[in-house]
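EI: anyone free to look at a 275-residue chain?
SC: sure, send it
EI:
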Amino acid sequence: MIRFGKLGKLLSYVFLSIYALIILVPFTMMVFNSFKTMRELFLKPFSLPSRFSFDNFIKSWKFASIGVGYRNSLFVASITVLIVATLASMFAYMISKYEFNFRRAIFLYSMLGLALPARLAVIPIFILLRNMGLTNSLLGLILVYSSVNLPFSIFILKNFIDAVPNELCEAARIDGANVGYIYYRVILPLIKPALSIIAIVTFVNVWNDFFFPLILINDRSKATITLAVSIFFGEYSIQWPLLFAGLTLSIAPTVIMFLIFSRFFIAGMTQGAIK
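SC: here you go
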């Protein structure tokens, strides 16, 4: 365990305070400016709003169809989390607890997704989805997001499953348990902290992504929340107050979710570090 002296603690507090300010100041400015008029925003961009009116939020909700964006993003993110958690846990269990030919090669191949960003392959991805008839489709987005988030999830889950004693699986086999039973009754309960990590990370990644909806979706009724808010970027002007209100509404669910489930996320990271 690393121990810091008084000077070390002071420096760490200063560093963390500066880092917190770097994160909080832009976020706070966005929230405050979402309550201002265009004139007040340009005259006093760093001040508190003269009055807290929700007119911008109402207009943003109406003009950008925030409700539709919420529905589409929630559907895509939830299904993606379910697919990623299921496939990644099964794959990690197979790689971790079973011996077979090319096991290491298969695992290393699956890790290529961590080294090669999916955006580099946007043209092949678009052509593939177009040939499958999945462009301008929420199902196409789900497939893309699932493949993009699988490598990281496999990496996290394999490390957790490696720490599960093989004796537990062997004892279950002696008692007559099959592969599915061991996976569901032995492995999954022991890797809940890791599952919470990948669920939160995957959900936030999908919810906040703007790139793939911009490329693949051209129907406003299928727009995710980030694509819906982009309506306030005009060709010749930007409606900053409405944009800030829309952005505040778009990030609110992920902030609330993290505040609710942060203890599970921290517990999972702590157990992973200990292991």
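EI: The chain has a mean pLDDT of 88.
SC: 👍
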